[in-house]
Each structure stands twice: as C-alpha cells, then as structure tokens.
Amino acid sequence: MSAYNRRDFTKLIMLGGIGYTLFSCVDDDKKQKSTVVEEKEEAFTVSQLLPENVKLYQKADEGYQELTVRFNKRFQQSPTYIAQCFTTQGVADAIKFAQYKNLNVVVKSGGHSFEGFSSTNNGLVVDVSAMKKMEWNPDHSVTIEAGCVLKEMYDELLPKQRILPAGSCATVGVAGLTLGGGYGFFSRKYGLTCDSLQAITIVDGNGNIRHESGNSAILKACKGGGNGNFGVVTKMKFRTYQAPNFFQAFRCKSYKLTTDRAKKILEEWFYHTQKLPISAFSAFVLNGTTLTILITNYTDDVKNVMPMYDALKKISDKATVGSKRPLARALTSFYGVQHPIYFKNACAGMYNDFSSIEGCLDNVLSKVLSSKGLIYQINTLGGNINSETAEKQSVFPHRSYSYLSELQSYWEQPSQEASRLAIFQEVQQLFYDHGIRAHYRNYPDSNFKDFEIAYYGKYLSELKEIKKQLDPDNRFQHPQSISL
Ligand SMILES: Cc1cc2nc3c(=O)[nH]c(=O)nc-3n(C[C@H](O)[C@H](O)[C@H](O)COP(=O)(O)OP(=O)(O)OC[C@H]3O[C@@H](n4cnc5c(N)ncnc54)[C@H](O)[C@@H]3O)c2cc1C
User: What are the residue ranges spanned by the domains of the chain?
Assistant: First the structure.
C-alpha cells in the first residue's frame, strides 16, 4: 500500500494551513444546542494525517480491490482514491485531500446502495465502514459510528433489551439506511429510523467537523435527505426503545396464480392491512406466480391480526402461524443474503390504497407473473410514521402514504442482466404512465425521471439550501445527488 504520497501530504499540510476552533450556536429561546462547528485555528499538523485516522489507497495498492466490493455486483467501480477512515478527523483530512486534488467524493458505509451510489469510477471514496464504535448514554440513547451494519447494531442493543426501529437485512449500513429514512418491523409503532436520530457528527464539503443536534436544520436534512449529498456523517446518536418480549410471524402462501386471483388477494390484503394495529407489519410479496403474505406482530394485541390472517388463509393455498419467538432469534430469520449478488431493486411507488394502482394492476401483475425472477412487493407504512412531530423534524416527504412498494430482480450471470433490466423498466414504465411519482430515497432507480422531486418532494428547496451551505463546491456527487 503506497498510502499517502509524502509530497501530496506536504502540499496538503501547507494548504490546510490552520487547525480547528470550536464555537457553538445556542438557541436562546429553547436553550437547545443545535450546531457546533470545528474550524481551523492552529497549524495543520502531521499528526492529523496519521494512518490511525485515515489510510489512502490507489489502484495498485494491496487492499484496494477488497475495498471496491459492494453488495450489488452489478457495480464494479474503480475509484482513483479510496480513503479508509478510522476517525472523524480522518474523514476531515480525506475531504481536505479531495479539495486539494479537486476530486469528487462519494461516501460508503454498508455498501448496500441499490444503484452503486457509494462508489465511483473516478474521484475519492470516503469509506467509513471501519468506524464501528457504539457507546451507551445514561438515558438509554446510543451513539453509533457510521460503519456499523444492522446486525452489529442489533447484537449490541437486543441483549440490553433495547431496539431501534430499522430494517432487518444483516449487512445493510445503519448510516445509509437512516440518512434516507429507514423503516422496518417496528416503524409503525416507533417511526422511521431517522425519527430516532437525536444528534450527528458530520464532516462538510470543506472538511469542517460539525456537531448537529436539537433544532438544527442540518440534522433535519439528514433525516431523509442525507445520503451522499452534502457531507459525511460519522456518528449518530439514537433514542432507543424497550424491546418486545417476543416476535411472531404469520404467512399465507398461494401458488400458480393467475392475474385475476393475484388481484383479488391483493385487494383483500389492502382492505385488511388498513385495520392492523401499529405493532403489526405486513408485506405482499409476489415472486413470479408464487405469493407470500407476511404478517408480523410483537404484542398480544391481535385484534385485526387474527381476522386478517383468517380471511387471507381462506383464499390462500397454505397458511402458517409461527410461534412467539424471542426477538433476537426471530430477527435472524430475516437477515437475508450476506454476500454480494447481482440484482436490480427499486421503489415502485408509494400508495394510499388499492385504488392508487388498480388501473395499472392487470398489466403489472401479468408482467410479474410471466417474468421469471421478478418480484413485486408492497409493505405497510402508516401508524406513527405519519406523525406530525416527525414531519416537522425531518425531510421525509412521504409520511401520509400508507404503503411502500418495490420491484426486485436477482440473477446469477452477467449475461442475464440486459433482459432482466429491460423487463424491470417495462414494469416501472407502467407505474409511471399510471401517475405513480413518489419514491423512497433508499430504494433509488437511476431511471427515475425528476428523481429529486420523487425522493424529496416539498423539501427539495430546503435541501438545496443545505447543499449550498455545506458543500458550495459540489464536492459530494453521485448520479442522483442533490444538485446546487
Ligand atoms: C438487501 C437489502 C435490504 C434492505 N432492507 C431495507 C429495509 O428493511 N428498510 C429500509 O429502509 N431500507 C432497506 N434497504 C435499503 C437501504 O436502506 C439502502 O440501500 C441504504 O442506503 C444502504 O445503506 P448502506 O450504508 O448499506 O449503503 P452505502 O452503499 O454505503 O450508502 C448508500 C447511500 O448512502 C450514502 N451514505 C452512506 N453512508 C453515508 C454517511 N456516513 N454519510 C453520508 N452519506 C452516506 C452513500 O453515499 C449512498 O448514496 C435494503 C437494501 C438492501 C440491499
């Protein structure tokens, strides 16, 4: 590993010039700390560039190749530099290096971006995946470094009987998931993952380290709009909740479906999910001609859970009631694939109810039923995701939608890619033509038209202001980053 080239560093030192001061803004009315920025003050010392903070890799370096691997094998990219960061200071140094070299920057935490937005073919990857410290605070909140993945977070929280409402796939990054919103089994009760975010440390486009909390507009922007747009989040402080004593899953399966039958079951599913208690979650998962309906719950409030299960059981081919299992054990059965695969996943729209998609369903369903490997899934949102307080404190614009859908396609050989992507796009076009326009930022599709509006809606102008403030040189760029 050649790591830093000494000449580069000498120039960087001269350029950085000066070290850091600390000042804080206090909202006098609310006495609520919102922003602390660490800026330059003293000489930029060599100690700030030590390998314990950051290691820089170039293509010929040992270890470089390993750092280019992402969960989606469709994206094999070769950045000019990779900065493997171990501390927030290391991230700040990496950004200053990017400034000096005039490089664009992308950020990598868990590496699960659907569309490869955490890598690049030129420019610098700031890789924070080695930053994995977790610290508890006396009030049961936990400060998590940005490199932690969901499994590591649950392994820390569950033995202490605490949870954070987040996704379930083991190797997804807590940072990437939270910064785009984040939802999972517990979100209808406790809100999106970002709604539990109380404070962050973020390095901006000038390499300044900022601590944001309380009523900070930057913290707000990172709750739904923070994915690789204007800074690198290095630490996140989360509120946590008492973990439930058990977790239970119900499943109804149907095979060899026709379009008519799939549509009837879906209509029934929409009808019953509207009545589910907020502790319950449900997903309609149509994989080719096989349908799985999942219902999960973790309280003894089975009102409307059992009636939904009983009604769907009657029209399904097979139904099972899972046992009440300890949460830690139950969650592992949803951990999913933990090694890189070829796939295309994307949001297929946010819906209010069955009528939102009824008009295009015949075409969508017949495409899914006749296309090998194409999966159409609809998940329940609603409950406390749609909270007024959360709305005011975040930039997630889709809270009023009760459903989030996704299309998925998985394959094994690169030769299958072109045909899979073509069918995928045909289905996306059907939704678009039907007027489906709102999409979840964490389920991006490079083909979305007007993606900024689709992801951020009414909050786009607010986010552009934050982009101007934190990243005036537009250093942070990926194919769907917020433009200046
Ligand atoms: C198998 C799988 C299961 C999933 N399940 C769920 C789920 O249950 N619920 C859900 O809500 N989502 C889910 N997702 C979507 C997931 O939330 C997003 O893919 C998320 O962005 C991944 O974050 P990451 O850190 O792993 O990815 P990365 O590829 O590292 O980053 C994703 C994006 O976030 C940016 N980013 C990452 N870290 C930082 C940082 N520290 N500072 C600033 N920007 C950063 C990157 O630049 C990139 O644009 C799933 C995805 C996959 C592949």
Answer: 6-127, 134-243, 248-457
